[in-house]
Design goal:
The chain has 244 residues and is α/β, with parallel strands linked by helices. 59% of the residues lie in helices and 11% in strands. The protein has 10 helices and 6 strands; from the N terminus they run ααααβββαβββααααα.
Length: 244
């Protein structure tokens, strides 16, 4: 087997990247102001002297979308890494819990947990990944190399029971090509402007709608933010107390 040609790589990305943009828009269309607001810290907005309903809504949407896009795009990059490895080394999507990719290269069996970037989890999440690696070793029952592969970043380190490979090192591992981390960047921009223009139109509609709702539900008669009402919405548990 050999690494995928540029033509094959471009074809895969151009076929699958529209799904990322589609999910961005779908995520927007399902969004509810109060659901997003309930997850945010109202004291932080006050401490930052956020006095405009429009500014507060923009901050809400930016934080939500950043998190959503990281997740959706991370899933896309994982599928791309599996595809590249399938072409290069006959890799396959793993059926073992917590493991994303399995393949053999140079007589070494690899099991890989794929993450978007190097700072992906807390100590509990890392411990859980280690447990998955431990369980996988019991199932496979022969020598394997466990890898935490990160799609971007520079870290390359040996953690004892697994190795962490980020960025270029990770893409080289799954493709056999030192330059793969750069090969994938250009095709990702396929029709990006058109799709972002479409997204921005939907974003503007949601932003305008949320500002309207926020003014109606959380502003005083003079249109200033009613902080007492906002804090009560996110923190007042009197309703819960009355129900018990």
């Amino acid at each position: 087997m050999a690494r995928p040609t540029k033509t094959v790589l471009v074809k895969f990305i151009e076929k699958n990247i529209p799904d990322f943009h589609k999910k961005r828009i779908e995520s927007l269309s399902k969004l509810k102001l109060k659901k997003v607001l309930a997850r945010k810290n109202p004291y932080l907005f006050k401490a930052k002297h956020t006095e405009s309903a429009a500014d507060l809504v923009k901050q809400l949407l930016a934080a939500y979308l950043s998190s959503q896009e990281e997740t959706v795009f991370g899933n896309f990059l994982e599928s791309l890494a599996v595809f590249v490895c399938t072409k290069a080394f006959g890799g396959r999507k793993s059926t073992t819990e917590g493991i994303d990719l399995e393949f053999e290269r140079d007589a070494i069996r690899y099991i890989v947990s794929i993450k978007s970037g190097p700072n992906w989890g807390n100590s509990s999440q890392i411990k859980k990944m280690r447990d998955y690696f431990r369980q996988a070793r019991k199932i496979v029952k022969h020598s394997i190399e466990a890898i935490n592969g990160c799609c971007y970043g520079k870290e390359v380190s040996n953690k004892g029971d697994y190795k962490k490979l980020c960025g270029q090192a990770f893409w080289e591992l799954v493709s056999g090509d030192d330059d793969m981390y750069r090969e994938i960047i250009e095709p990702l921009g396929h029709k990006a402007k058109e799709r972002n223009d479409e997204f921005n139109k939907e974003y503007s509609k949601i932003e305008n709608k949320f500002v309207e709702e926020f003014i109606q539900d959380f502003c005083a008669a003079d249109k200033s933010i009613d902080w007492n009402k906002l804090v009560a919405f996110s923190s007042n548990n009197s309703k819960i107390s009355n129900e018990h």
